[in-house]
Design brief:
CATH topology of the domain at 12-82 in chain A: Arc Repressor Mutant, subunit A
Number of helices of chain A: 5
CATH class of the domain at 12-82 in chain A: Mainly Alpha
Mean pLDDT of chain A: 85
Helix content of chain A: 55-70%
Distance between the termini of chain A: 43 Å
Radius of gyration of chain A: 20 Å
Oligomer: homodimer
Shape of chain A: elongated
CATH superfamily of the domain at 12-82 in chain A: Winged helix-like DNA-binding domain superfamily/Winged helix DNA-binding domain
DNA sequence: ATATCGTACAACCAAATGGTTGTAGATCAG
DNA sequence: CTGATCTACAACCATTTGGTTGTACGATAT
């Protein structure tokens, strides 16, 4: 049985979508660009060798992952970076870091039987 | 300049592997568990409903992404968390955060441009 | 020596991914 | 209005992914 998972807070599907969206170089490049400034979908498409439709799909993946937002302006769709998604990804990695440090702390505690170990 | 940063990496296969490895709830659970303590592959497999071979594949994906290491001990393979992979993922997200803050900075204040180069 | 355990790996399958082309609907310029 | 642009979306295709079962092999226990 699937056993209680060790700390997964946002829905697993959301997190899957988030990291999946980041697992592609083109999509990471898009995130970086639209985080630095605004682009229309066709403006983005012009940057890559692939078809417009392919870029459109990448943007859709990023939007579903909350890494970018789209806003209609005239006949264009303006794509912007969405801080929310980034923060979420970072929080998740921070949780793993915390687990790591807890383990490192346990090991240190075992090696040094005395607890001289408090936070400033 | 920022533009240089945006143009780097035609395709970073390592980063793809890293985020892809994190884009699965079972794999994230494995990472959390082996970061907290040691597990053999079969010890991990016992935690999930899927087959041993499926878990073995997940561990292999994590190993290729530098998120875990395996070490043979007797007839078992001990899986442990690998800090290196985590750190790399965090650094990549930090870069995006930096771009975000640079943009926020540009909006608030104009042209205090500062050249920053980063490691891959 | 033999059986069992833990692992590795191949072969196979369904579903998802990442790309293409093509069609159609809005919106803007002349 | 006509034509060009920007977008959305469907249909299709090749490859990858995530799972399965089955086989093989070294290490361990009886």
């Amino acid at each position: 049985m699937v056993v209680d998972q060790l700390r997964t807070r946002p829905s697993d599907a959301d997190t899957d979508r988030l990291f999946h969206a980041l697992a592609d170089a083109t999509r990471r490049d898009i995130v970086a660009r639209v985080t630095a400034g605004e682009y229309s979908v066709s403006g983005l498409a012009a940057l890559y060798t692939m078809s417009f439709a392919a870029v459109q799909k990448h943007v859709a993946v990023l939007e579903r992952a909350s890494l970018v937002t789209k806003e209609k302006r005239g006949r264009e769709q303006i794509v912007r970076g969405n801080h929310e998604g980034l923060q979420k990804a970072r929080r998740l990695l921070d949780q793993l870091e915390m687990i790591w440090r807890q383990r490192a702390g346990r090991i240190a505690d075992i090696l040094a039987e005395d607890d001289e170990r408090d936070l400033p």
